[in-house]
Amino acid sequence: MSQSSTTSRISQVTRHLSSVAGSAVQAATGTTVDHKLCMIPGPIEFHEDVLAAMATPATSHVDPLFIPVFGESIELLRKVLITQSAQPFVVSGSGTLGWDMMVNVIEKGDNALVCNTGYFGDRFAECLQVYGANVTHLRAAIGDRPTLEQIEQALRANKYKMITITHVDTSTGVLSDIKAIAELTRRVSPDTLVVVDGVCSVGSEEIRFDEWDLDVVITGSQKGLGVPPGLSIVIASQRALNVFQTRQSPIASYFSSWQRWLPVMQAYEARKPSYFATPAVQLIYALNASLRHITAEPIEVRFQKHAKASQDFKQFITDLGLKQLAVSPKGAANGMTAVYYPRGVTGPELVQSMAKKGVQIAGGLHEQIASQYFRVGHMGISITEPGRKHIDKVAEALKASLREQGYIAK
Ligand SMILES: Cc1ncc(COP(=O)(O)O)c(C=O)c1O
């Protein structure tokens, strides 16, 4: 079979697969896939071109056809993060591997200040502690975020190697003001690395890496970037690379070491073959397909579309008489919404009832209140391609499911 007929067969299959929401479909493997519209805060729905990329034939990771695709993906990531000089790392793994990659800049005994807005702040801190960091948490009430005054006080009280900020904590839907925190950190403690967990924000929230003078942004493939899970993506500033290059102690990790990955990234970008550990070829094809879509329009337009869709969805939630976790609109994510169940409505029933209607949403995750709320993702093609009517489907299913449980909207 020629390459083009293979491609066209694959796109037919994937188009068919992805066009059917809420019904059982026959996948290319012959297994039955029950596809519900996936409206959790990641993984999100994938574009047909992304699905087609995942179904491409076996390809060597040093094939002359693959190398430029990897190289271009690295360049396109810079466009998405709005940076000229930062270094992207694209490695097989999930978002969590990005936390582990902080082993490259953290040394035993270093202080880390964690701006904690939920579950993922706790987990990131746990990871840093594995590598010997002394962690200080700055916490806020659930749904809120530490204030700039608290952060300034903490930065003045102690010398920190890094400050970490979960841009959007997926457990609460709280959005942190990374621009203001980065500005403050540069003013008060210029050498402290500003490390952003952008797993639930890259692709859906405004990030201006160079202008805001960030040092590290960590993400994964499966949320705002619209690619299946399996890629860990980390973008590091020259300042962060310098800290890595001048560190005193050896890096206590084999797979996560930038010593091994930096030459590989540089080689692919220079369109040269390289090898440390086999890259996930099909995922990188998928990443490339998605990044091409994302960068086809100005990134500002993408931010605006997510912000507008989020405002509309949040207004719909308020009009239903429901309350969000995020205590202020400014501190609420644009790519997801976390909502308390109203009185009389219970979590498992609501999520199951939505699933029966072909829409997958997520239950709560914050350990203290997990059974009290649900979460909806609104990122990627569900927002940029409104013709797909994904949000309308969520809204209809939610209204009907609440009604079934006896909840009458105010
Ligand atoms: C904010 C945030 N950080 C980190 C992670 C961990 O990423 P992964 O599950 O891809 O390892 C997640 C996962 O949802 C997340 O939402």
UniProtKB/TrEMBL annotation:
Gene Ontology biological process: glycine biosynthetic process, by transamination of glyoxylate
Q: Which Pfam families match?
A: Aminotran_5
Q: Which UniProt keywords apply?
A: Aminotransferase, Pyridoxal phosphate, Transferase
**Coiled-coil regions in this chain?**
none
As one GO molecular function, the record gives: L-serine-pyruvate transaminase activity
What SUPFAM superfamilies does this protein's entry cite? PLP-dependent transferases (SSF53383)
Recorded family membership: Belongs to the class-V pyridoxal-phosphate-dependent aminotransferase family.
Please report the name of this protein according to its UniProt entry. alanine--glyoxylate transaminase
